[in-house]
What does this fold into?
Amino acid sequence: MPVRPSHYQDLESFSSPLRVAYRRADRLPELLADETLLAVFYFDASPSCSAQDPRCISVGLPELGEGGCLECWFSPVRVDAGFEEDIGFSFNHQLLFGCLRQANDDEGNLEQTTFRTYRRLLQFARDRGFPHLLRVWNYFPGIHEMRHGQERYHAFSAGRYRALLEAPGLEQRLPAATAIGCQSPDTLIYFLSATEPGVQVENPRQVSAFRYPPEYGVKSPAFSRAMYKDWGTRQHLYISGTASVVGHESRHEHDVLRQLDEILSNFESLILNARRLRLAIGSVSDLSAVKVYLRNPADYEPVRRVLAQAIGDSVARVFLQGAICRPELKLEIDGVYCE
Ligand code: 3EB
It folds into this structure.
């Protein structure tokens, strides 16, 4: 057994296993040289990332505003990283980050492709000793397009459902998720999983997505509204993509600022519910970071301004252009709270 420096044990037991921060794009070289970097995401084609580094992820959603933002995930200790076939990964003692990219098979069967992808990532996470899926981001092209008589989002949902529900008891441990349509031709799926399970958190203002009526897909969207994770000395909350949905219905069709208001109410109600667990979060202004997905770039300025009024400037944020899975929804926000 290799002997670990003793300060590592202190870091392992006292520090947060994951910390999210935003940096400017010109910092990329020094970030990649940092052995505690779990992953870095960039949102447009500008920074040139080494395709050899599994921690460096280009997300096919254009960044709105100034651009040049890097989302960085840090571990308190050095990470191990590598590739296994099409999965890039990195991990520390408590969590595993994994990422798969697929060339789009536009005419193919998205349900079947998604089923296989999710099976593969679950198998991979199990094999590596991190069987508990906490959080998944799904970005794929043509989200509203009809193929074989079905919207692609619904086909995606059905494939994910079949793969996740193969695992016994997963209905009580659905990961938090984001599913957004991108313009780039590739599908990108990345995830966070853990050695020990998290706790699924639902939102009293919303019907659990897993219980949606069939109009949102013959097989339900298999995700929870948030995942609470107690890491020992630190607690995290991973919040799913949150839209202007109350009950199961979309509210304020096509009115982006009213949708923003409804999303903030959804956040408050979810956070209130999560506080029943051991979580020191008071309101949405305490979140560590949010990602804002906008269907129309023209909505960036008003949304940026009203969001800043509502949550202040201490929450890190990035604005991305992407298609929310229901055509009437113009805006979706996901977030993370890391102690
Ligand atoms: C909703 O509340 C909006 O299918 O993974 C939000 C977050 C939405 C995740 C997913 C879908 C997903 O139903 C859409």
